[in-house]
Design brief:
alpha/beta; Transcription Elongation Factor S-II, Chain A; 8-stranded mixed beta sheet; two-stranded antiparallel ribbon; about 45% helix
Length: about 675
């Protein structure tokens, strides 16, 4: 449906609801009727203001696409998100107009829903105004504003003061595929429950138990959940995020996930010793270059890696490889019995760098899709467990990944491969490392990989604004404050104050039955509790109204609030937050280092890269990173492809078993890797 038709329908259904309310003889709903009348009129007002903004973007946003066959950029995404919000309002309004007089109509619930989406539409309207500033300030086809003191800094101040809780309560994940929304609710409920007890004097089973008993209130009260999530994302430190994200690393939880994952014949963790070795020069195999172990920050040290192979191949059961293996629990992590027949060496090798914002997770977090890839591609996969920030800021991770890459080239026979074709693959931070490792290989004169497959890579680790980065205001998986914490940690700005990590493994200290209970509770709570609960208590109604609409700016608060962007019309002001904090904007010359932000790399460092295949998401806050980097490579006549998938969040590879859409996105990555492996064969057949 054309956007003009969508907004015409919005006005029409809002009018139908208003007419139904005025025409009803029932007075049983009392104040709720007046609340609903007010919110429907406000939605109409926002709709009338948003329509011309959307019209303006739809007229020009194609100029920012990678090409005509790849529609995707932050301006398109903002329009898409607005459409998703408006379409939900239309469906809910149609339901209200048809069922308002019914005996089973839940007035309190439906009013709260409409108030929440009205708040969301108001904030999206504000984002469109901010995007309009970017559109006016930037050149044709340019998605990033890189002017010092421009919208980048002003948007941070707006982010601090703008109300965000509405996007984490009833509206949570409305822009994503419906199949992912229960998962997002589980994550947010778990996070706010964990965050509430994070700084209490409890560890292990204590925090887990507290989190379990407090999570129920966040299921029953979406407004409270949204407000608490907003507080957590802006106030809690990096150690909280590392601890929460690494819950998936605990032995019991990862053990439960393995029940449903694919079985592979080889899944072994290795420690590559810190030893200097030589590799032949790419330009002349008669000459060699020395490859030294990583040394940044604390001197030479080993690198941990994981070898995954669906089929046991020659070399993978060798004594030389087993000598490098390290204990990771029960013997299941070791290669299978020597007596089993081994397959021949594969001509292909996939080297993987995991995501996690440079600060969290390991190869274990990404095992599920790597096992699937190993089977689908029939290749061994080496995933690198590089050291994490803030304890190990740049360039330690890059040094370790480059060293592991070079070691794999030299020792491919131990990994079950001849390495005739080598592909680098990674997601998010791992996608960044794929590109920068290849740049480092070129600068060292060693062989570059035959191709790169980067999923939603972070190619610009600066605070520059783009239309897609405006989505950090509404994204539950990548809020701006968390993104900045990751950038700051990797840049090493505050590394001198980093304390050793506290061990708060909330699940490691629990019995398996208790773990299952917690997991089942958080995953199923939304389905059965919301079906039983009809929030009609007056006290809940009052607080819900205040939270979903956001507090009005008051004179007493105006002096304390950071300077706001003055790009809004005189008759409009976005909803403001009660949670005002001072977000520290990362500021370090390292952020513009081309090996940190490859989008800023000069032509000399990018010329000669292998074919780069980027798989991005239209709803990812880092979408514009991918679009601009792909354009830069294309303008240099470097081989590059860009695929933009719809309706999925940042990090969709880790969710590949949750929905058909994430599985299809993973399959696209597999096909791009296959293209890298088969490219030479295809060229030879031409």
């Amino acid at each position: 449906m054309d956007h003009k038709d969508v907004f015409a329908v919005l006005q029409s259904v809002c009018s139908d609801v208003i007419s139904a309310l005025y025409g009803s003889v029932s007075s049983s709903h009392g104040d709720n009727t007046n609340r609903l009348l007010g919110v429907m009129r406000l939605i109409q007002e926002h709709g009338r203001a948003v329509e011309p903004l959307v019209t303006g973007f739809t007229a020009v946003y194609h100029h920012f696409d990678f090409d005509a066959q790849t529609p995707g950029n932050g301006y398109r995404t903002l329009v898409k998100v607005v459409h998703s919000c408006v379409n939900y309002i239309i469906q809910k309004a149609l339901y209200i107009a048809s069922n308002y007089s019914g005996a089973f109509f839940r007035m309190e619930h439906n009013v709260a829903e409409m108030e929440a989406y009205c708040s969301a539409l108001c904030q999206l309207r504000a984002l469109l105004y901010l995007a309009q500033v970017l559109l006016n300030d930037n050149g044709r086809g340019q998605l990033y504003s890189q002017e010092d003191g421009g919208l980048s800094e002003r948007f941070v101040q707006e982010y601090i003061s703008m109300h965000k809780a509405c996007f984490y309560g009833r509206c949570l994940g409305f822009q994503f595929s419906p199949s992912l929304r229960p998962f997002l609710q589980t994550v947010v409920i778990s996070m706010v429950s964990f965050g509430e007890n994070y700084k209490k004097q409890q560890t292990g089973i204590g925090i887990a138990a507290l989190s379990f008993f407090t999570s129920g209130k966040y299921v029953m009260n979406p407004e409270l959940r949204g407000a608490e999530f907003e507080r957590i994302t802006q106030n809690l430190d990096m150690q909280f995020w590392k601890t929460f994200w690494n819950i998936t690393e605990t032995e019991l939880l990862s053990g439960l996930s393995r029940i449903a994952s694919l079985v592979v014949q080889v899944n072994v963790t290795l420690t590559v010793p810190a030893e200097t070795f030589t590799l032949p020069l790419a330009s002349d195999s008669n000459l060699s270059v020395s490859v030294a172990p990583p040394v940044a920050h604390w001197g030479p040290g080993p690198v941990n890696v994981r070898l995954i192979s669906h089929t046991l191949r020659q070399g993978q059961d060798s004594a030389e490889l087993l000598a490098l293996s390290r204990s990771e629990g029960p013997p299941r992590s070791l290669p299978v019995s020597f007596s089993r027949q081994t397959a021949c060496l594969s001509p292909y090798l996939l080297i993987h760098f995991h995501g996690g914002g440079f600060v969290a997770q390991t190869s274990k977090s990404h095992e599920n899709y790597l096992k699937s890839w190993s089977k689908d591609l029939d290749v061994p996969i080496l995933s690198v467990d590089y050291s994490l920030a803030p304890e190990a800021p740049f360039p330690r991770a890059l040094e370790e990944c480059f060293y592991a890459y070079c070691w794999a080239l030299k020792n491919c026979h131990l990994l079950g491969s001849t390495a005739e074709r080598v592909c680098l693959a990674g997601d998010s931070a791992g996608g960044n490392l794929c590109i920068t490792v290849s740049m480092r290989a070129m600068s060292h004169g060693v062989r570059v990989p035959d191709g790169i497959v980067a999923a939603y890579p972070a190619t610009l680790l600066t605070t520059d604004s783009s239309p897609s980065r405006l989505l950090t205001l509404i994204d539950p998986l990548l809020p701006l404050s968390v993104l900045y914490k990751c950038i700051d940690a990797y840049a090493g700005t505050g590394s001198q104050t980093v304390q050793p990590a506290r061990h708060l493994d909330t699940l490691a200290a629990l019995g398996q039955d208790t773990v299952k209970l917690i997991i089942n509770f958080t995953q199923g709570a939304n389905n059965w509790l919301q079906s039983l609960i009809d929030p009609k208590a007056p006290s809940s109604s009052s607080s819900a109204t205040k939270l979903s609409n956001g507090p009005s700016p008051s004179k007493s608060h105006s002096e304390d609030r950071p300077q706001e962007v003055r790009e809004y019309p005189e008759n409009f002001e976005p909803l403001r937050s009660r949670c005002l904090v001072d977000i520290q904007t990362p500021c370090s010359p390292i952020m513009k280092n081309p090996f940190v932000s490859p989008l800023l790399a000069p032509v000399s460092l990018l010329k000669g890269l292998p074919p780069v295949h980027i798989v991005a998401s239209a709803l990812d806050a880092l979408l514009d990173d991918s679009v601009m980097f792909a354009k830069k490579l294309r303008n240099m006549n470097q081989p590059v492809t860009l695929t933009v998938v719809e309706d999925l969040p940042h990090g969709f590879l880790s969710l590949f078993q949750l929905s058909k859409e994430t599985q299809e996105a993973s399959d696209i990555c597999v096909q791009r890797i296959r293209d890298v492996f088969q490219q030479e064969e295809c060229q030879g057949n031409k």
